[in-house]
Amino acid sequence: MKAIVVGCGRVGSAVAQQLLASGWEVTVLDENEDALGRLGESWTGGFVVGHGMDLTLLREAGVEEADAVVVTTDGDNTNLVIAQAAQKHFEVPTVIVRVLDPARAQFYATKGLRIVCPTSSAIETLVSAVRHAEEEATV
Amino acid sequence: MYVLIAGGGKVGANLTRSLLRAGHEVTLIEQKPYRFDQLEAEFEHQVIRGDATELFVLERAGITRPPDLVVAATGDDEDNIVICQLARERYGVDNVIARINDPRNQAYFDLLGISPTVSATGAIMGLIEHEVPEHGLVQLLELRKENLEIVEVTVDKGANCHGKRVRALQLPDGARLISVVRAGKAEIPDDETQLEIGDQVLAILEPGKEDELRRALL
Question: Across the A/B interface, how many CB contacts are shorter than 8 Å?
């Protein structure tokens, strides 16, 4: 199985490493060459330097044969546009995109994108932790 | 008409000024504090500060009314795409116009069905091609929705089509000659029209057939 990870920050690099470790063929794309350092010295997957909006680079990274694309650059709007291209233009079967803004995440989820919103997850966890503390105090 | 403009750079600010002068109602959204202060001094309550890709900012600017037109004129193409998608699909705005900063991103706007688009680089390139045609074909008009374009070709010495009749040309499917201008006079060519040096030929064709058409004519 082949995966492309667009954006090699803390999240993207860890996703790429874990997929590679579980047997996936992984190519990472990031506009900053130094991001390769996040993947560790033993990185045996692919690495393409350039902006994820560049369709030629996405092709070079193998988007046309990819089974999955994970989009995790630091820009919500960049992520949303790249993810839609991967889904609609390249017809990648699984496209997952990180969006930090819960409002945009909710809207684009209704348009058929698979969205992970860490902000919403953090809010839920925080609220439920506080509620849990409240329950314990009243017992 | 009520117009919402995202991005208060040169394009957005001048548009706002022109539309206000023409008597329209305008709300301008600008994110950068320094730029916002400058704009506020001129446009007062008609400019608001914020990220125009945030739903609450758009709503504060009045997108739920909805506006007759939303212009996405920020300096970031991804932002402009998202603004147009939100305006159209989330808030039911009928008319959007998007600015394209990097002409290489045109493919994304086309792919996501965002039109019309305006690109300064693209427009200047079009003028350069018209003034200094290097590739033989000069694009005169692009009908993006109809998937057609109209191009102009000048028949030079040594051109493939020189001296040939139209029916003898191997024009690609999806391309047709619509006019031949000779000595300042335009004619609609038929199969028997013979092409001569100096003729300006107009052709209509599907985008992507330019190379085949060039080979048939030049």
Answer: 45
**What are the residue boundaries of the structural domains of chain B, listed by start?**
2-122, 133-217
**What pTM does this model have?**
0.80
Compare CB distances from B81 to A55, A81, A103 and report the shortest one's residue: A81
Asked if B78 lies within 8 A of A103 by C-beta distance, the reply is no
In which region does residue B153 sit, left (phi positive, over 0), alpha (psi from -120 to 50) or beta (all else)? beta
Predicted confidence at residue B133, as pLDDT, reads 61
- The number of folded domains in chain A is 1
**What CATH number does the domain containing A36 carry?**
3.40.50.720
Residues near B121 by Cβ (< 8 Å), separated by ≥ 6? B102, B103
Q: What is the ipTM of this complex?
A: 0.91
Which of A31, A57, A63, A77 is most worth mutating to test chain B (most B CB atoms within 10 A of its CB)? A77
Name the CATH topology of B2-122: Rossmann fold (3.40.50)
Q: The domain B133-217: what is its CATH number?
A: 3.30.70.1450
Task: Give the pLDDT of chain B (218 residues) as one tens digit per residue.
Answer: 999 999 999 999 999 999 999 999 999 999 999 999 999 999 999 999 999 999 999 999 999 999 999 999 999 999 999 999 999 999 999 999 999 999 999 999 999 999 999 998 888 887 777 776 666 788 888 887 788 999 988 888 888 888 889 998 889 888 999 999 998 899 999 999 999 988 999 999 998 888 888 888 88
CA distance to partner chain A, nearest, from residue B214 (Å): 25
